[in-house]
Amino acid sequence: MSNFLSKLTPEQSQALYDRAGFWLVKDLPKGSLVGIDGSLNQVLDFAGFKLIPPSLHLIVLSPPGGTSLDEVLPSPRTGTLYFSHPLQVVTRVWSSSVDSLKTPTDGPDVVVSKEVLKGLDTKLAPYPIDRWETWKTLFPTKFVDVGKVERVLGKEGSVGGWDLDGFELSSRVEEEEGDMIGVSLGGERVLRHRSEKEGKAGADLTRSKDGEPSGDGIKWAMFDLKRSWRQGAVGEETTTFARDKSWLFWHVVQEQCNGDLTLLLTQLALLLPLSIQLQTPSLLCSTYRRVLYLITNSHLHLVPASSPYLTVPQPGALSSFYLDFIQLLHAQLSWLPDTFFQEDLPEAENWFAQSITQDLQRGLKTRFDNPFSTLTEEKDWIEVKDRWLALSALCGDKFGWTMDTSAAAAGASDLDEDEEDEEDRPVVVEL
């Protein structure tokens, strides 16, 4: 970024300064780790970021673990996710007593003059503009806007945006798993989720201070992949949808996303960068993985009238959904470091690769093995296939993943290596 600024004339620098956004923070301890949109640096005298372009940004902070600047083990990361706008100045205060960001005592709407900004200039880190083009591809505006993010993360705070804590996000994943209460019924393990017991379609993963569910909290889609057929299903229907997740896909879309297909993509778009930047691998290896598996193992709904037990509410929307889904995967995998699956999270490589090179491929083969009703429909799906081929090429070049040409004949992959066959899996009921 410094090289970029050095190439600007004084007039260009001033014009940029007058149009860009600013994010200010007070009282952040010296030696903290601070980053924005994937960058991360240790700072000594830091007052915020300047020249922030309009987009969705993720700022992460981690104060030093001790009082010495030589401390090498940082505290868990907290962060704030917010939409930046031209000329916007966001001011926050770091509270060392609770290790979190707070709203300034003079309120969220405090006006910061240009003179104050210029006085802070040497303490403001310029936005790493070389990261912006790649970063913003992670959040397509088609399914990542304020309204959709609010439906997942709850209402924005008083200063705009969403404050997030790595420990808290991890604990909510654990809470989700803990809410799946195992009950032995006639030798079968039935898992009931608390939200079903209370008559709720979805699950609110945030709690108020008294421990009750909060209406404005984080709401990831929650479902059990091992109970993927409708209540009351028997015989062939149970067997079919134990293997294929199409019924469960639409059940989740209708009951937890209010019929909005793109809300699943909103969740995938948020989960991966939040997991990596806030150092919460459980978000990726549990919640993200589950949504990815649901999408890539739903094949029957790609073919009209493929099952008498399946009703697809929006068949015409599927080609557009898969086009956006594959493009999102391409953006996410392009953003990851080349060594991510070797050095950062090797336990994620097998299931991630299988979802793309086997499961998703089988779904597309299912679609192309059956006739299209119109030339327009066929053209739409050819575009999906072309985009998937581009994704496969990226995976091969970057991570060494190759397409499994025998995938079409393979069965659906298990989430756990030692799981039973699909027919013998425990019956699981969503809560």
TrEMBL record:
Chain residue ranges for the region called Disordered: 410-431
Domain AAR2 C-terminal as annotated: residue spans: 222-404
GO biological process: spliceosomal tri-snRNP complex assembly
Compositionally biased spans, kind Acidic residues: 414-424
Residue ranges of every copy of the AAR2 N-terminal domain listed in the record: 22-152
Coiled coil: none
Record-annotated membrane-spanning stretches: none
Similarity field: Belongs to the AAR2 family.
Record-given protein name: mRNA splicing factor
